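ugh ok fine here u go
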Amino acid sequence: MSFFRKIFSKNKVTNNENHKVPGLKEVYTEEYFKERYTEQELSENDLLVDGSFKMLESFFIDNKIKPIIDQPVYHPLNIDQAVQEGVGFYEYCRQFDQDDKQIGLIITIAFSYFLVNEWDFKLFNDKTPEFPLRFMTLKYDRNGGVLSLYPFEYSLKVLNGEARFSDLFEKIKTNLGNIPSAKDVLNSLKRDLNQE
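structure:
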């Protein structure tokens, strides 16, 4: 059985101002998970991944902007910089007749590749998403406790100036060690039941 967490849910317990404990959102069986989600491999040789990297690199070269982080170009700070500086990544891509979904996918793939390679997240296609923009999900599994992110939905917030990848990156970095394992959750539930 897998236990899914979402560190950005409204049901947070705060033990100090900057440290928030993830809350339990759902419990899924492994069978249900396998029916609903299909893992998507991301490799540097994949055309979509390579194209995303090339568009980011081209943006910096064509606009004569030095990336904040030299390598990798797909670092969250660099993606934020591309979205915010110069003509902006959105307008840059529009010059190449790319539509909104393509532009969103470029930065989604770049950010997803970063999390997959840096922290062993896995990218999944959701066959029955709760909302249309959540057709992709990144998951980090810690002994049955799973953190879920929706990279395409978040990318649109970044493109609209409502969020930054670097902020999400810091939240993830701060909270990865706080994801309770399935055993931790079961022990907590048993304690709660015994107290009633």
